[in-house]
């Protein structure tokens, strides 16, 4: 039975009591209210107030509500450990929290000892771990993998909660009395892989336990036992799981953390390096092409400059050679017109006997029209040509044709 008391402080006034609740319980008008804790229907909020017997209009405020939870199931405390992975010799802190926290609890601390015959674990009380008032417990000098549980109790006679789920402190030290090895020896695996586990130590009986990242502890039922103390896991579950071995004498081996990825991750692990290599190859080819093109341009520019230099040199030599055979004179008129007569060379047989040479002249007229600011071709002779009168000489003749071109 649970007793609720309504207390009104101040004065010697006699009070009448009034109760309100959200439960199905029917309160009395007494200062104390007794509630049967075996009925979950009595769960609810309870509050009270008082009224003066001498002055009915003198009424107190309602008290703060009290929340009462009645359950058929025993509460199960939640245990946490810190750190989960330890360095040898480190201190470990255990914390035990009861569901629906309230005052008056005492805490009990246990070490989980594997029991292979019962397919479970027994609980061994830790030193000074019986009925402590604090909800935390510190273990000094922890060196190997171990599991722990807690529970709480209160009342007289004392009522105890269920034991908590076991929580583990894992050590990666392989030099303990029992050790676990994994093959292939790598941290990350894929769901399509198979893994071999081998338990080693001076023990004849072994079992493999595991703890998933979702907080589920179980014995490795999907571990196929091979010869001796070797096990095979054919179907790995995606996620992070910790494995360790438990011996028949209660020893726990070092723990191994295995990360398992899906098959898509395996494909991705090959595709990503392939794409990176492909892109790198393309960039390398482009750089080589760019370098080859630059080298080719340099060679072409060098060859062009060489040819241009040779052509300029040849043109200069040709100009110097023809310089004596070009005659120009300014013609009269409104525009700057020049007459240029180039000698066609000696048409005779050469030698001292040729006093006069046959000359064919070409007349080039360059006219600049300043008004229209453009060049225009102009032919002064409608027929396109004009014949000069032949002027006979004793030993030769001169004939010419004039052709005008204006700009």
Brief overview:
The protein is an alpha+beta fold. It has one helix at 263-322; strands at 2-5, 15-21, 32-35, 44-52, 66-68, 78-82, 90-97, 106-115, 120-125, 136-142, 146-154, 159-160, 167-169, 179-183, 188-190, 195-200, 206-212, 217-219, 223-225, 230-233, 239-247, 256-261, 326-331, 337-342, 386-387, 391-392, 397-398, 401-402.
Structure description:
- With 407 residues, this protein is α+β, with helices and mostly antiparallel strands.
- The chain is built from one helix and 28 strands.
- The strands form nine sheets. Strands 8, 9, 11, 12 and 13 form a five-stranded antiparallel beta sheet that branches. A five-stranded mixed beta sheet has the order 15-22-21-17-18. A four-stranded antiparallel beta sheet has the order 14-16-20-19, with no helix packed on it.
- Strand 23 and strand 24 form a beta hairpin.
- It starts with a strand and ends in a 5-residue tail after the last strand.
- The model is unreliable at 343-365, 367-382 and 384-407 (pLDDT under 50).
